[in-house]
Amino acid sequence: MKIYRESLTEMKKIVARLTEQTTDLEIEQRVADIVENVRKNGDAALKDYEQKFDGILLDTFKVPTTKIDEAYDELSNDIKDSLLLAKKNIISYHELEKEQGFIDTNTPGIIRGQKVTPLERVGIYVPGGTAAYPSTILMTALPAKIAGVDEVIMVTPPQKDGINQTVLAAAKIAGVDAIYQIGGAQAIAALAYGTETIPAVNKIVGPGNIYVATAKKQVFGKVAIDMVAGPSEIGILADKSARPSELAADLLSQAEHDVRARAILITDDEQLAQAVSGEVTKQLETLPRKDIAMQSVNERGFIAVMESIPEMFELMNVVAPEHLEVQLEDAMKYLSLIRNAGSVFLGRYASEPLGDYVAGPNHVLPTGGTAKFSSPLGVYDFVKKTSFINFSEKSLADDLKAITTLARAEGLEAHARAIEARFNQKEN
Ligand SMILES: NC(=O)c1ccc[n+]([C@@H]2O[C@H](COP(=O)([O-])OP(=O)(O)OC[C@H]3O[C@@H](n4cnc5c(N)ncnc54)[C@H](O)[C@@H]3O)[C@@H](O)[C@H]2O)c1
Ligand SMILES: N[C@H](CO)Cc1c[nH]c[nH+]1
Ligand SMILES: [Zn+2]
């Protein structure tokens, strides 16, 4: 991995350049064409794209319930138990995110409040290009169910020998209502606009590759989206107390997701930097997804050696990684120094894959620097809020002057008269 030894000022410029969200115009245009074609031609366009991108000619997109039940029945006990453990922990964590709304009756004659309503129908995208993601089904569908969503529609790319059995079983465990085997930008377009067979949804959530993430950005406005959850990222802050072999393993855990994944180490220890770089090269040799991981670390990964721990945090806040591991002595004490990260892993035993599978917090997280303004997927993503007010006659009378003054200051006479009507024309 490339090792930088620059000043903080210089390093911030380098990081800004390396992590800049360059809009790839070619991908933007390709995705725009796909979205428009699916919007106009529905299922016919979907079939063409599935044949073109996934090499599969489909008669029908919907996966029959019998197939899902069969997959569940045939699941090995080991996998079933692991999924159930993950489910239990995801539920117990996400239950804490539930919002009840509020009602304020502190002022006599005035009731104000906010009511929380689940979305009616949501679409969850479950990636399936180069790996299968049963864990992502739990991470997306369970919070939706906890929020009270009526219908959870899942899409995932078709596979030559049928959709991965664990994916189907996980969908049953998570309570998904329907599964359609479609993927990529075309699946996002289908969920946004609806086709003859795919129902349009109110919101699309879930991670995916660059085509999926770009399509989600393009359909935003027609539907809601959760965030830009694109190619995975890991940032690690480590000092000399950390073990190079563990840091290398954690970096590769995310690099193996995608050639566009990003793995970054920031340390204050030159020796550690070199040891981790050597370990990454060594561990890559035996990795089944070596080609993907190698391209990721070589083209998009780097190590930065800084002067001090505060400098390390300052630089990592510029990176704003999806996952941030703090592999420093006494890690918990640094939580307050972290401003920008999707999810933080503190201490030696909080290795990133713990969060991917069973810890409970969501693994669908903002990428590409969007952790500066986005949050992990959560129960709050599956609800909307509505405010409400109720005033007594006296309370409205008390505010009459302020309302009519502001309305007329804005040149909106009808606003003022609507309020005055309550007092001028009581007999009507
Ligand atoms: N940020 C998160 O929370 C999070 C969580 C899990 C996974 N991920 C990321 O999800 C991604 C999964 O990617 P994947 O590729 O395995 O699966 P994917 O399902 O996201 O993408 C596969 C689809 O991409 C489309 N596609 C492929 N090449 C194309 C092309 N040239 N033109 C147009 N469309 C094309 C195809 O339709 C294919 O079905 C990875 O980047 C991984 O890092 C992110
Ligand atoms: N690390 C991914 C989020 O970037 C989530 C995941 C699912 N399976 C394995 N990993
Ligand atoms: Zn992962």
UniProtKB/TrEMBL annotation:
Binds 1 zinc ion per subunit. It catalyses: L-histidinol + 2 NAD(+) + H2O = L-histidine + 2 NADH + 3 H(+). Gene3D superfamilies: 1.20.5.1300, Nitrogenase molybdenum iron protein domain (3.40.50.1980). Residues 1-28 form a coiled coil. Its cofactor is Zn(2+). Zn(2+) binds at Q254, H257, D356, H415. CDD domains: Histidinol_dh. Substrate binds at S232, Q254, H257, H323, D356, E410, H415. GO terms for biological process: L-histidine biosynthetic process. Pathway: Amino-acid biosynthesis; L-histidine biosynthesis; L-histidine from 5-phospho-alpha-D-ribose 1-diphosphate: step 9/9. The active site is at E322 (proton acceptor), H323 (proton acceptor). GO terms for molecular function: histidinol dehydrogenase activity; NAD binding; zinc ion binding. One of its GO terms (cellular component) is cytosol. Belongs to the histidinol dehydrogenase family. This is Histidinol dehydrogenase. It comes from Liquorilactobacillus hordei DSM 19519.
